[in-house]
Amino acid sequence: MSATVSIASRPNALWLALSKNRLSWIGLGLLLLIVFTALFAPWLAPHDPLQQNIAYRLEPPSAEFWLGTDSYGRDVLSRLIYGSRVSLLVGFVAILIAMTIGSALGVLAGYIGGWLDRLTMGLVDVLLSFPTLVLGLMIAAMLGASLENLIIAIAITEIAPFVRVARAPTIALKQRDFIEAGRALGYSPLRLMGVHIVPNMISDVVVLGSLWMASAIRTEASLSFIGLGVPPPTATWGSMIREGFENILDAWWLTVFPSVAILLTVLALNLLGDALRDAIDPKLRSD
pTM of the predicted model, to two decimals? Predict the structure, then answer.
């Protein structure tokens, strides 16, 4: 019964948190705008993002090219729009993989305990001993530059926080009366974990996922900047900044606009994550 009440009350708590936190509406609006742009990129982009025209090389922002052109004569606005697809795809899929694997390991370690818990947390401590970007750089360099390898590299770097967040409430929940009642009724550990424990701690994992998706997008941009992201000529925000870095003094728009896109996306995810956190934790709700 407690699990049912908890789940049913979450939409109301989320709406209350959004109503009290006006900045969260800005984050939600920005995120929806970015997602809309990514979904409808073929219709919104004014030019082909891969079409080169040396005659228009390094054109400043104008009526024809709203955000200017790059060193190959490609439209920056079109590449920026298509780049949102890669950033959101990498961020979402990488965090989804990390969330699934990390939560499963955390629940198993917290519920079973013993040697499995010690082994899991030892591996987590090893992963957390490396900075996220450095660990992602090492993995991406070993796997090679591709979209799939980039997602795998970022997902591995983000597993550890989800293990910790899933493990802590699992340890507390397995001592609760409704779990003890389930054991008395003969429920299997798999059923207790999947049906009774996971629904009561998944909200914490979702909040962490929204916040770490911003980190995943930053990591993707950083890896793309140093050439370990999606291979060219595919447009990504990180690779666009890298291409414009060589002409930063003569063509400022090449680095400024992709940087602003990353900033707005990360800001939107952080604002929305704060609202989700307020909805989950009553102690953090605004008065």
Answer: 0.85
